[in-house]
Specification:
single chain; alpha/beta; Rossmann fold; five-stranded parallel β-sheet; 12 helices; 5 strands; globular
């Protein structure tokens, strides 16, 4: 075994896969307290918007194409040695792999963070309406792929099971908000990290610079995707709000929830809780 391979084995590498609006940015902020950590922000989503095979776009924003951000280049980047880092943590959205599940990087453990479709889509709907009141609904309709993301998340889960022979960890955001310490301990135990109370309260400053493309990251911040994660300062136990009533949802949100609910339910059946 080469010295580089031995060094990689010393590193803890894991990815949190999710849907948008599922607290993965908060989880990344939580991981900022981990010593010698590399935090990789939505690498395949960046390729989906900026790379040469890109298939995503924002309705009101045209981003420049980058030849260096192909899906294959992203895979290779994530498999780099990352000299001096003991932990490599990435977060991304399964539907932005565009079905290229064979491109998920080697050497990573996989965690799935799920959130009820009502919360996911209603949150995204509100973000776009706040960003552009006139075009918000149209932007919302064009943001998701035809299968709306939950189906791809379930497909990726099954792919990981088939490839690794192991069922990856599935965590639900309601459980995380109800008992952040307990759920973070489960995650740390699963990937081999030592839990720290600092993971619960990250403050307003970012002590660790994220490994992210500036163009893509700045667009996300401008739209308002990071509002709570950057301003809340940490997790608050017992902060789960009642699930909004289905009949009170905007019609397009109801449609998306109906399509996605079966795939969420399948993943929810696999979730790990503190009481398990």
């Amino acid at each position: 075994m080469s010295s580089e391979s031995r060094d990689k084995l010393k590193q803890i590498r894991f990815i949190a896969w999710s849907q948008p609006r599922s607290l993965t940015t908060a989880l990344m902020r939580s991981m900022e307290c981990v010593p010698d950590v590399e935090l990789i922000y939505e690498p395949f989503t960046t390729s989906a918007f900026l790379g040469p095979e890109r298939f995503r776009r924002y309705l009101t924003v045209e981003l420049p194409m980058r030849k260096d951000l192909s899906f294959q280049a992203t895979k290779e980047k994530m498999e780099m040695k990352f000299e001096g880092k003991k932990v490599i943590f990435a977060k991304d959205f399964a539907f932005n792999l565009n079905g290229n599940y064979d491109l998920i990087p080697d050497g990573y453990q996989h965690t799935f963070l799920i959130r009820h479709p009502i919360r996911t889509y209603l949150s995204m709907y509100r973000v776009w309406k706040n960003f552009n009141p006139e075009l918000g609904v149209d932007i919302f309709k064009t943001y998701f792929t035809p299968r709306l993301g939950f189906q791809e998340l379930h497909e990726l889960y099954n792919y990981v099971v088939d490839k690794t022979g192991k069922e990856p960890l599935v965590l639900d955001t309601d459980d995380l908000l109800e008992n952040p310490k307990g759920i973070l301990k489960i995650l740390c135990d699963e990937v081999g990290l030592e839990f720290s109370e600092q993971m619960l309260s990250w403050g307003l400053e970012q002590p660790v610079q994220w490994n992210a493309d500036d163009d893509y990251l700045n667009i996300d911040k401008m739209i308002g995707f990071h509002g709570n994660s950057l301003s809340a300062g940490g997790f608050v136990a017992g902060s789960v709000k009642p699930l909004p009533k289905f009949e009170d949802l905007p019609e397009i949100v109801q449609e998306y929830v109906n399509i996605s609910q079966p795939f969420y339910d399948k993943l929810y059946e696999k979730r790990t809780t503190v009481s398990n």
